[in-house]
């Protein structure tokens, strides 16, 4: 049989990336049609699909609690006299449960939260999948599972009442401008989820930073702990860091029964998921330790300096830990293996910079009390520099050791 008469492997060609939508989905959900076969190849037990699956499972505690807390905070607001939201996402819930009331049970609260979170995540997932397929088609590459986690992380750091069109714009900016234009997965130097959040944060601040977006009820006017402290409504004067462990308000913040973005309120849930991520070595403990050390040292320094005009100077590190998006950024954003430093010493320096910048932004700029997201984006730019300095130091040490 001549080379021209030889029939191609139909299944392999059909499922090759760039040939069809079904081929993309097959490579994404099952396996890539051109995976190598045989015994001559060295295999690892982990790949992109397994990595992203593990990260998604580690996020599950925060997701489940966040869904419940959406309903819980709405119920607390309704009990205080506010009117329950009547957005279209809640039409099925209102039809089944007759609206949010003080008597709504656990199941009702979960369904209430799921009714609001599911459209946000589906929007982010479909938009990111669309752009991934567009760029995979142009480059003739297979789809990578990274967009699942990017969409998850992006939606978990959003307020529950974020408009869906804004969700689509944010994830579009993050995927295209922070990832795909630099070559796609593995080539980006900025965290796509944080880049998308930064874009809508500065382009549409009234839609993202307004306190009315934090709870799914009409007329909500509460505030997060960071906002209240920045406004002088909470005081930490003469408050030692260890007193937090006997403070019921701190424990509420630690468990997550507070107002905040969808998946960032429960420090406990995030530490559980993040701890498993460290045990599987998908997250490096050096980065986590560096962020914590940098945050504790900087917060303690501001406590010692003090200020009669800014209450955030007195906020102890124990409260920085459980407020804002610190926990989710500590365990899942800062440890992103693509955008961090690769050397061991570089990882420590990278983490220290994030911890330092987080407290600095929170304290010195009260108009922007949440600082860790911007701190990570800033540290992303420094990650290659840290690796370069570590490599130069190693070369210099070896040359000196060998008398060169």
From TrEMBL:
The keyword Plastid does not apply. Its cofactor is FMN. It is an enzyme of class 7 (translocase). It catalyses: a ubiquinone + n Na(+)(in) + NADH + H(+) = a ubiquinol + n Na(+)(out) + NAD(+). GO terms for cellular component: plasma membrane. Composed of six subunits; NqrA, NqrB, NqrC, NqrD, NqrE and NqrF. This is Na(+)-translocating NADH-quinone reductase subunit B. It comes from Shewanella piezotolerans (strain WP3 / JCM 13877).
């Amino acid at each position: 049989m001549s080379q021209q008469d030889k029939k191609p492997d139909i299944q392999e060609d059909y499922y090759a990336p760039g040939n069809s939508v079904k081929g993309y989905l097959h490579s994404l959900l099952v396996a890539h049609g051109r995976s190598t076969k045989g015994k001559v190849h060295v295999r690892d037990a982990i790949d992109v699909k397994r990595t992203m699956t593990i990260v998604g499972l580690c996020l599950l505690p925060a997701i489940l609690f966040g869904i419940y807390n959406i309903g819980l905070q709405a119920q607390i607001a309704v009990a205080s006299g506010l009117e329950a939201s009547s957005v279209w996402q809640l039409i099925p819930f209102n039809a089944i449960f007759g609206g949010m009331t003080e008597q709504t049970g656990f199941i009702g609260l979960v369904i209430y939260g799921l009714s609001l979170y599911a459209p946000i995540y589906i929007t982010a997932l479909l938009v990111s999948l669309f752009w991934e397929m567009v760029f995979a088609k142009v480059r003739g590459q297979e789809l990578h599972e990274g967009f699942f986690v990017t969409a998850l992380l992006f939606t978990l750091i959003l307020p529950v009442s974020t408009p869906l069109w804004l969700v689509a714009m944010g994830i579009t900016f993050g995927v295209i401008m922070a990832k795909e234009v630099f070559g796609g997965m593995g080539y980006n130097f900025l965290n796509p989820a944080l880049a998308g959040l930064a874009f809508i944060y500065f382009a549409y601040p009234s839609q993202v930073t307004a306190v009315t977006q934090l709870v799914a009820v009409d007329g909500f006017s509460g505030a997060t702990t960071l906002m209240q402290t920045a406004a002088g409504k909470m005081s930490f004067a003469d408050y030692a860091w260890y007193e937090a462990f006997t403070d019921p308000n701190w424990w509420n913040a630690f468990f997550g029964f507070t107002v905040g973005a969808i998946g960032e309120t429960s420090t406990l849930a995030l530490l559980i998921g993040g701890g498993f991520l460290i045990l599987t070595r998908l997250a490096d403990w050096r980065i986590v330790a560096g962020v914590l050390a940098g945050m504790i040292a900087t917060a303690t320094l501001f406590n010692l300096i003090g200020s009669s005009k800014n209450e955030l100077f007195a906020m102890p590190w124990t409260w920085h830990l459980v407020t804002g998006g610190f926990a989710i950024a500590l365990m899942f954003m800062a440890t992103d293996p693509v955008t961090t430093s690769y050397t061991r010493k570089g990882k420590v320096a990278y983490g220290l910079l994030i911890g330092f910048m987080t407290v600095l932004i929170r304290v010195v700029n009260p108009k922007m009390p949440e600082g860790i997201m911007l701190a990570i984006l800033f540290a992303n730019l420094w990650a290659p520099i840290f690796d370069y300095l570590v490599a130069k130091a190693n070369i210099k040490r070896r040359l000196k050791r060998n008398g060169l």
